[in-house]
């Protein structure tokens, strides 16, 4: 298991921390951070309306089993991390259907050291 953080250009200085359990996805995240992977660099997954201690300031988290990296995604899953926090009660229906979140401007910022 490993923890990573991403930022959004539209999110200011805030970071969103997420957990990865899959060794292949952990390796891919490290390749993104090293600059080796330059195509599939944005974060996508299903959010759960539950806070996690590793991601302070947010009332939701990404389900580690659903996180992967993408180049392009449909617009319906794009949202700013702050906007999602502010409208979490509406999320999962017409807003971010199926609880899938794919912030287009997400960029990995670092791996969180244990």
What is this structure, in a nutshell?
By secondary structure, the chain is an alpha+beta fold. The protein has one domain (2-112). It has 2 helices and 7 strands.
Features:
7 strands, three-stranded antiparallel β-sheet, cAMP-inducible_BP74-like, alpha+beta, 114 residues, four-stranded antiparallel β-sheet, single chain, BP74 N-terminal domain-containing protein, BP74_N
Shape: globular
> Span from first to last CA?
10 Å
Radius of gyration: 13 Å
Given the structure, what is the number of helices? 2
Description:
This protein has 114 residues and is of the alpha+beta class. It has one domain (2-112). The protein is 16% helix and 29% strand. The chain has helices at 23-34, 81-86, and strands at residues 2-8, 16-20, 42-48, 61-62, 68-70, 100-101, 106-112. The strands form two sheets. Strands 3, 4, 5 and 6 form a four-stranded antiparallel beta sheet that branches. A three-stranded antiparallel beta sheet has the order 2-1-7, with helices on one face. Strand 1 (2-8) and strand 2 form a beta hairpin. The chain is globular, with a radius of gyration of 13 Å. The protein starts with a strand and ends with a strand. The model has no long low-confidence stretch (mean pLDDT 94). It comes from Kineosporia babensis. Residues 2-113 form the BP74 N-terminal domain.
How is the topology of this model organized?
Elements: E1 2-8, E2 16-20, H1 23-34, E3 42-48, E4 61-62, E5 68-70, H2 81-86, E6 100-101, E7 106-112
Antiparallel strand pairs: 1-2, 1-7, 3-4, 3-5, 3-6
């Amino acid at each position: 298991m490993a923890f990573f953080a991403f930022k959004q250009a539209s999110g200011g200085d805030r970071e969103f921390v997420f957990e990865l359990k899959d060794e292949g996805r952990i390796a891919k995240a490290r390749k993104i951070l090293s600059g080796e992977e330059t195509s599939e660099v944005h974060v996508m997954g299903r959010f759960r309306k539950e806070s996690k201690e590793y991601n302070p300031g947010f009332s939701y988290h990404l389900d580690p089993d659903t996180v992967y990296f993408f180049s392009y995604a449909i617009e319906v899953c794009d949202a700013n991390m702050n906007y999602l926090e502010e409208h979490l009660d509406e999320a999962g229906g017409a807003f971010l259907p199926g609880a899938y979140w794919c912030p287009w401007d997400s960029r990995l910022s670092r791996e969180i050291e244990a």
